[in-house]
Amino acid sequence: MKNTQPVRSTAEYQAMDAAHHIHAFLDQKALNEEGARVITRGEGLYVWDNEGKQYLDGMSGLWCTNVGYGRPELIDAATRQLKELSYYNMFFHTTHPAVVELSERLFSLLPGNYSHVIYTNSGSEANEVLIRTVRRFWDVMGQPDKKIFIGRHNGYHGSTVGSASLGGMAFMHEMGNLPIPGVEHIAEPYWYAHGGKLSPAEFGLKCAQELEAKILQLGADKVAAFVAEPFQGAGGMIFPPESYWPEIQRICRQYDVLLCADEVIGGFGRTGEWFAHQHFDFQPDTLSIAKGLTSGYIPMGGLVLSRRMAEALIAKGGVFAHGLTYSGHPVAAAVALANLDVLQGEGMVQAVKQDTGPYLQRCLREVFADHPLVGDIQGTGMVAALQLCEDKASRQLFANEDDIGWRCRTHGFDEGLIIRSTHGRMIMAPALAITRSQIDELVGKTRRAVDRTAQELGLL
Ligand code: PXG
């Protein structure tokens, strides 16, 4: 597929961008010296830059374009809805068909213990709403002292004040005096880096039991909820040991602490199940969703509530003092519904579970098991991470792993592959629409990027 003619030169776009735009999560001064990559087009699994260079997008945008780029069904749904009803709100006793249809479809995909959703525009907002809704729930349950949230170090729940507080990114907390009061953190279940001599199972239990210790320290009557991603996404695609989630669930149930799963990355088929908590086999009380809900074509997120929570809030809560202008936006809802039609109609989630997911995971393990730079391969379905390490036997990480990961990712870009580094982990999460031959391309290009990095380090 040919790239369309650039309207402006890349240098022009870069200069205009540098003049007016503060980017996400980077040193703006350094970017302005280097110039931003200008992406102009996307189709299927590929994007093109302003120079016409093609990239296989190994991270589906930002873990969100689950059906791939440019699907006409989603584009047509947006166009139809824009013509029919371009905007209306959910305030003042009002609804509209697009959002009603979407809600019904969403709960046809979810287990029966969930019944209601509060729509937002993003994952960060879903987690902001989580804080207020959980606190409100405990108020109406007659336990107004249950207010504290427990999150995890290196967890990611968004970039707004509340959601960044729930998250455990120290460098984010440094900006803007976070976390807010009433949020505590426990260790992340990252066995490769922190497990020491413990087996993964022992380490998983140890990390989970930190939750129990924290609840006992704070008082169970003060703790509202534990919030976590089923697997850590932005933190490095870190999969917890198998012993972790059953123990977390036992602790939450024992102390009547709500279990809140952040499904923003894991939801909508990423693991081969519709939601990642189903892959890990635990039953959260709330689900934060976004990204794959619309495959990123248009912003939309939400907070899914268990029947127990929704019934209590509806029966006893009175006025729910929350609402966003764009909650349940009709165009977003129409696109989400079309997205779910494609995911379901083409059996994409099933394919990830039964065919393409196992194939990707098998190829990665075959290609990288004996690689001198790769100490561990984690993942399931359409999400995976390669752990780069200095010494495989002792699981020694590189002191400058950020730099090495970044170099590897840059080699990936040279090879025409978008892959992401998080510290020393090379992480990938391509669109669920990927074919076996595109998986071959993804693994082959990743291999060349990792090999080039290993050669620079004198390991190959
Ligand atoms: N929860 C999780 C688990 C996420 O991954 C959010 C909440 C926030 O969603 P919004 O829509 O507000 O961005 C996210 C977002 C990365 C990266 O570098 C990941 C995210 C965002 C930006 C970068 O992996 N995830």
From TrEMBL:
Superkingdom: Bacteria
One term under GO cellular component: cytosol
GO molecular function, one term: transaminase activity
This protein's record includes keyword Transferase: yes
Keywords: Aminotransferase, Pyridoxal phosphate, Transferase
SUPFAM superfamilies assigned to the protein according to its UniProt record, in alphabetical order: PLP-dependent transferases (SSF53383)
Family indicated by similarity: Belongs to the class-III pyridoxal-phosphate-dependent aminotransferase family.
Protein's name in the database: Adenosylmethionine-8-amino-7-oxononanoate aminotransferase
Organism: Aquitalea magnusonii
